[in-house]
Amino acid sequence: MLRIGLLTSGGDCQALNATMRGVVKSLSNNVKELEVYGFMNGYKGLIYGDYRMLTAGDFSGILTRGGTILGTSRQPFKLMRVPDENGLDKVDAMVQTYHKLRLECLVILGGNGTQKTANLLREEGLNIIHLPKTIDNDIWGTDMTFGFYSAVNIATDAIDCIHTTASSHQRVFIVEVMGHKVGWLTLYAGIAGGADIILIPEIPYDINKIAEAIAKRKAHGSGFTILAVAEGAISREDAELPKKELKKKMEADAKQYPSVSYKVAQEIEQLTGMEIRVTVPGHTQRGGSPCPYDRVLSTRLGSSAAQLIMDKEYGYMVGIINGRIKKVPLEECAGKLKNVAPDAQEIQDAKRMGISFGD
Ligand code: F6P
Predict the structure, then answer these.
(1) Most exposed of 70, 86, 182, 262 (fewest Cβ within 10 Å)?
(2) Å from CA of 185 to ligand 1 middle
(3) Segment 275-295, tens digit of pLDDT
(4) What is the extent of the structural domain holding 197?
């Protein structure tokens, strides 16, 4: 009998179900006796023993369904070693649940924080496989995470819609794209949507350069400008602050503005006198069906994870490098963030054609 556990943790994204389907369909097609335990709402389910036994049928018809049939929650890694409100040792509880159910392995779908806890459970002696999900595409060791291209499609659609109205008005439009720490989603949606200015956390902006880019467009006869701004976009002055001061500044900004785009909007308005509109697609970027690319990626990652289980190879993240599925040791990738390099080819290509990054 092969008994496996499955859980989805952290913010959701579009292809979680497609990935689990890839794992379970591949196993049930190749293994005679299989038991699948689905832990509910992320690590919570593993800590408190909240699980459902699932059959292959539960994974039928979910390739195109967004969200996660298991539910998810955020359980910060830094709190994993802190006992819960009843004094329960969470790590110990997770290890006990695993052994009590006599699992052969645990397949964990999630982003960076989830991956760190997955590695911690590996260190505790559990057989773990991690599958990289996030619309942010910021997991080190894989070229692509599932969810990313589906979110790029949605953010691009938002910019496309803004484009038609922007061209009728002499205004500046800001579309705020998800991503607090990294700018992959903003960069790709910005390029795909034809944004004139793209602001990402990795390239701190100078508001004067943004005003110059808007003025330059005006001088060339374009009365409107579209900015794609990452949630984590940061000004040069702020980026230079020591950590503690930056934290204080961010807290003060959060009281004054709903999000960074409103701050940028106010600064642009003061400098240019132009009318500004802000659009925040927010969580729509994580919603709906996975795009075909993500369905294929998820199916491949899930199927390859099943192969690792059948080969009894544990302690890996299953990623994709140059189109080939690769297993990456968890101890190698856990805790590392994949940022956009400020001199990345995508940035150079965009700058060459006049897109401003506010630097
Ligand atoms: O999961 C990644 C992400 O979507 C980020 O892009 C975004 O900044 C954050 O999650 C939003 O988190 P929450 O769903 O907790 O508001």
Answers:
(1) 86
(2) 12
(3) 999 999 999 999 999 999 999
(4) 151-286
Tens-place pLDDT, residues 117-133: 999 999 999 999 999 99
* CB contact set of 220 (below 8 Å; sequence gap of 6+): none
> How far apart (Å, rounded) are the C-alpha atoms in residues 244 and 136?
26
Mean pLDDT over the full length of the chain? 97
- Residue 167 confidence (pLDDT) above 90: no
What CATH number has the domain bearing residue 164? 3.40.50.460
Q: Please report whether residue 347 resides in a domain.
A: no
Asked if the structure places residue 350 within a domain, the reply is: no
| 147 and 63 Cβ atoms separated by less than 8 Å | no
326 DSSP assignment: E
Work out which ligand 1 atom sits closest to the CA atom of 232. Answer: 8
Question: What are the structure tokens assigned to 20, written together?
Answer: 């689990």
Q: What are phi and psi of 176, to 5 degrees?
A: -90, 125
Same domain, 109 and 180: no
Ligand 1 site residues (CB inside 6 A) read 10-11, 111, 134-136, 178-180, 231, 286
Query: Are 110 and 179 found together in one domain?
Result: no
